[in-house]
């Protein structure tokens, strides 16, 4: 179906203040959507309570309202403007909740303004945990055993039934606020109370914990003709139990066989087609039992999300921009790939690089905060690195954290003994990856680390490869450092500074740079082009790497 | 990737040289260079008989991460001639895996080269087109390699299908099934047969040069013309078989090479593409239903688009949304159809499996 010409003006709802779990990602998606709609000659009216955003710049929309994100503000805007449709899928959970509230009060109907991209029924089905579970069960998609509780007593009863460890997940909250793991009976009361009070409708899901399973996210687009494409598959380095926003994540998926991936893809597509009235970007999360490759659905977000912003940058595919076009009626196969300009937007990006996202925490600024990672997101930002290998990307990411780390390879020496390290990495904390590397440096086996962390051993092998290179560099002086080793170090993401600090004798990063320049080991620049070089790209962006 | 690996060399027909490290079997191998953009399913790709004679570049930067097993194969051995990657992984992670990629390639005597700037290489092939190449981990002198490369035959005009076809007939599925399919094997992928068997068919698979009379003896409800390697224009024997099948007016379904043969049997020429389509993300529009599908593709030859569109007896049913190439045809007035892509996928999306249902419905 081509564009719906009855839509001449659209209201975009922003995501409000920046809080943990909802940051500038939604500014990015809202701005892209505004641009995409105005490209079509549609008048864009925007509401956001946060003036420190790009989307509220006067040139982004035809009219910008800096008002509190409340139903009253919405009414005021609808009163003052002729608005044909509202797009609630760009401003995260906040925008969806507001759209839902306004719907319940009959505001949209009163002003003859329709919801585009998603309808309330679809939002409810996806965002209400119990409805989501029932829906999955009806579709035959496996989920973790769980029950919804609306009171403390109910919660206690269900917890006894399901058994420990379990998860408490409050309904309709941001970034997993109020959620948590309960490993034993003595933690239950507190966790239940916290969860129930965090939920705006005083409701929690008491769910069996699938600790140690692998976690994956699919970012996809669906149009109103039921076409679905997977834009990006993201693998969490950390297994189930750590909020995705607090997990180190990798794209494309590194450890998925095609059989396991196609099962995931098929399930995601079935879910999307059964969602109801929805056109736009969506995120589906799965958990995979590594032993059996059995799959369970964790959740879906029928809107662009924090992960879709990441997926857009990771693949080059502008998810929010295309999602906005789908919301006004276009089908995927009618649109062009914005990067190549010649091929179709209906395709699945292919990557010839690795993306690694590492969250950034600020526990030093929140004295006394519990730095154990879990269901509630605690990071305040993230870095995304691109490399031609996982090792290069993870090192670049660690170099970009703006803390004391110089790559994964150098974060001072751990004062912990081997036993302490093995114990320490059992609990997910912000510095776990650095301590894993310390443990490997001390000779702990990959097997032991996998047992302690449940992180897929492929990732641990990769970190071990970095340790091997590091140890080898440490046996050399700048003069004796062989060309091949220097080349391999650069290809594995070692910075000049890192190499300088590892060498046996004192030298500076400049000296390392001079040596490698003389040897011709210099950066090459590669494109993020959505298609792994299959087609010529017109508007790509670049990253640096090292090649033979 | 370690510092101790042997050096390996890749030489292209146009004289370009790429250096990397040896992986898999030590030796020398030559063939037509091509690239695959898929990010999963390397073992299925390596064992796909359509890749016979080809040296494959994996665009995805890590290959081998989840090892290999005995189930994820499309034939009984590795069919690619050689492998080129950025990072080929020796250490893997998967409970279901039985071996590493390195050991698997060694067992199958496949020479591979890693640590190659595959992106630069792919961009080169994209610009210059398909060509022959040689990789070696034993000969590193470029002049010697040039001499060896000169002996490699050109893919254009090369008949490879009869080499990979089964030598003996064999049967699959329920022998009592009323639904019988005669398969003409030019290098058929295992999952194509599985897709037929899963739909209740009793399948008999025949060698490439089986005469029609023998096919008819099976008294099939329909004929399946398989995928396979090489140039379809170099297979006049197969074109004759397809013509004879068409005269019978029974359902016929062709995939990939089978699609090209159906075109040739209708007098529509095929051509050697600039660098082919190989990957799991190719968008195809079904012109009959108006729906689109993401498809698995692996072909270096195509059906002449102008000739198809002009042909009064053949209808275009599927087109590629990227380059508008012909992805599917059907013969007007006959139950015969074919697609250029791989609806069985493996590896790849299941979007197009409905074609097997269509074929079965046609036979009932």
UniProtKB/TrEMBL annotation, chain A:
Q: Which GO terms describe its biological process?
A: glutamine metabolic process; L-arginine biosynthetic process; pyrimidine nucleotide biosynthetic process
A GO term from the CC aspect: cytoplasm
**Pfam families on file:** CPSase_L_D1, CPSase_L_D2, CPSase_L_D3
Question: Keywords, A to Z?
Answer: Amino-acid biosynthesis, Arginine biosynthesis, ATP-binding, Ligase, Magnesium, Manganese, Metal-binding, Nucleotide-binding, Pyrimidine biosynthesis
Q: Which domain of life is it from?
A: Bacteria
Q: Sorted alphabetically, which InterPro entries does this protein's record hold?
A: ATP-grasp, CarbamoylP_synth_lsu_oligo_sf, CPAse_ATP-bd, CPSase_dom, CPSase_lsu_oligo, CPSase_preATP-grasp, PreATP-grasp_dom_sf
Cite the annotated pathway: Pyrimidine metabolism; UMP biosynthesis via de novo pathway; (S)-dihydroorotate from bicarbonate: step 1/3; Amino-acid biosynthesis; L-arginine biosynthesis; carbamoyl phosphate from bicarbonate: step 1/1
This protein is called ATP-grasp domain-containing protein
Q: Which organism is it from?
A: Filimonas zeae
């Amino acid at each position: 179906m081509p564009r719906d010409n009855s839509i001449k003006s659209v209201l975009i709802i922003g995501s409000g203040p920046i809080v943990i779990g909802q940051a500038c990602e939604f500014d990015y998606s809202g701005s892209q959507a505004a641009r995409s709609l105005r490209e079509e000659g549609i008048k864009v009216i925007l509401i956001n309570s946060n003036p420190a955003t790009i989307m509220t710049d006067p040139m982004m929309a035809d009219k910008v309202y800096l008002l509190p994100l409340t139903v009253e503000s919405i009414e005021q805007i609808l009163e003052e403007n002729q608005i044909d449709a509202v797009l609630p899928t760009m401003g995260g959970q906040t925008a969806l909740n507001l759209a839902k509230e306004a719907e319940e009060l009959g505001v949209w109907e009163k002003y003859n303004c329709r919801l585009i991209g998603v309808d309330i029924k679809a939002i409810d089905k996806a965002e209400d945990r119990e409805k989501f579970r029932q829906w999955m069960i009806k579709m035959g998609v496996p989920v973790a055993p769980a029950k919804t509780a609306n009171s403390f007593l109910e919660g206690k009863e269900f917890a006894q039934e399901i058994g420990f460890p379990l998860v408490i997940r409050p309904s309709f909250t941001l970034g997993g606020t109020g959620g948590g793991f309960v490993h034993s009976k003595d933690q239950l009361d507190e966790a239940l109370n916290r969860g129930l009070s965090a939920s705006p409708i005083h409701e929690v899901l008491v769910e069996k914990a699938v600790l140690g399973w692998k976690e994956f996210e699919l970012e996809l687009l669906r149009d109103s003709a039921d076409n679905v494409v997977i834009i990006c598959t993201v693998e969490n380095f950390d297994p189930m139990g750590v909020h995705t926003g607090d997990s180190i994540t990798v794209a494309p998926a590194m450890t998925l066989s095609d059989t396991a991936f196609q099962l995931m893809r098929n399930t995601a597509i079935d879910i999307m087609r059964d969602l109801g009235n929805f056109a736009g970007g969506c995120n589906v999360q799965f958990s995979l039992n590594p032993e059996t490759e059995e799959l369970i659905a964790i959740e879906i977000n029928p809107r662009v999300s924090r992960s879709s912003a990441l997926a857009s940058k990771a693949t080059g595919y502008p998810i929010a921009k295309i999602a906005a076009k789908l919301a006004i009626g276009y089908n995927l196969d009618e649109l062009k790939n914005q990067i190549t300009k010649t091929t179709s937007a209906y395709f699945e990006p292919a990557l010839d690089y690795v993306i690694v996202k590492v969250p950034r925490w600020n526990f030093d600024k929140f004295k006394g905060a519990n730095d154990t990672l879990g269901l509630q997101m605690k990071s305040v930002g993230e870095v995304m690195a691109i490399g031609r290998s996982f090792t290069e990307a993870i090192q670049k990411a660690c170099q970009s954290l703006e803390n004391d780390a110089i790559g994964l390879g150098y974060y001072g020496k751990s004062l912990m003994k081997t036993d302490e390290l093995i114990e320490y990495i059992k609990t997910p904390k912000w510095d776990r990856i650095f301590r894993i590397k310390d443990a490997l440096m001390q000779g702990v086996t990959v097997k032991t680390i996998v047992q302690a962390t449940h992180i897929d051993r492929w990732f641990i092998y990769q970190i071990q490869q970095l340790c091997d290179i590091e140890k080898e560099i440490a046996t050399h002086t700048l003069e004796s450092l062989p060309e091949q080793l220097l080349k391999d170090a650069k290809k594995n993401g070692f910075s000049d500074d890192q190499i300088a600090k590892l060498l046996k004798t004192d030298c500076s990063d400049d000296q390392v740079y001079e040596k490698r320049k003389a040897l011709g080991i210099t950066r090459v620049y590669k494109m993020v082009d959505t298609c792994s070089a299959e087609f010529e790209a017109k508007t790509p962006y670049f990253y640096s790497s090292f090649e033979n | 990737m370690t510092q101790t690996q042997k050096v390996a060399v890749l030489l292209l027909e146009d004289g370009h040289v790429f250096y990397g490290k040896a992986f898999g079997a030590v030796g020398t191998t030559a063939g037509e260079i091509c690239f695959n953009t898929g990010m999963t399913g390397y073992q299925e790709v390596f064992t796909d008989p359509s890749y016979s004679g080809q040296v494959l570049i994996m665009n995805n930067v890590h290959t081998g991460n989840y090892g290999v097993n005995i189930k994820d194969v499309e034939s009984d051995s590795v069919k690619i001639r050689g492998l080129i990657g950025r990072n080929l992984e020796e250490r893997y992670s998967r409970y279901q895996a039985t071996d590493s990629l390195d050991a698997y390639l060694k067992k199958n005597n496949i020479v591979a080269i890693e640590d190659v700037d595959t992106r630069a290489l792919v961009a080169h092939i994209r610009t210059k087109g398909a060509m022959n190449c040689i990789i070696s981990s034993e000969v590193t002198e470029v002049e010697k390699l040039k001499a060896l490369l000169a002996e490699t035959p050109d893919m254009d005009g090369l008949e490879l299908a009869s080499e990979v076809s089964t030598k003996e007939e064999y049967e699959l599925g329920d022998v009592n099934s009323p639904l019988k399919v005669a398969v003409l094997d030019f290098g058929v992928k295992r999952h194509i047969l599985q897709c037929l068997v899963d739909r209740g068919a009793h399948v008999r698979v025949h060698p490439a040069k089986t005469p029609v009379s023998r096919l008819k003896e099976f008294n099939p409800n329909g004929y399946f013309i398989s995928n396979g390697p090489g140039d379809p224009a170099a297979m006049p024997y197969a074109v004759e078989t397809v013509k004879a099948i068409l005269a019978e007016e029974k359902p016929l379904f062709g995939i990939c090479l089978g699609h090209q043969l159906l075109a040739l049997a209708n007098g529509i020429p095929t051509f050697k593409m600039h660098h082919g389509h190989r990957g799991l993300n190719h968008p195809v529009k079904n012109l009959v239903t108006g729906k689109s599908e993401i498809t698995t593709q692996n072909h270096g030859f195509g059906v002449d688009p102008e000739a198809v569109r002009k042909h009064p007896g053949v209808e275009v049913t599927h087109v590629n949304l990227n380059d508008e190439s012909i992805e599917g045809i059907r013969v007007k007035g006959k139950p015969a159809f074919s697609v250029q892509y791989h609806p069985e996928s493996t590896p790849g999306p299941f979007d197009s499996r409905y074609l097997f249902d269509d074929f079965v419905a046609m036979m009932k």
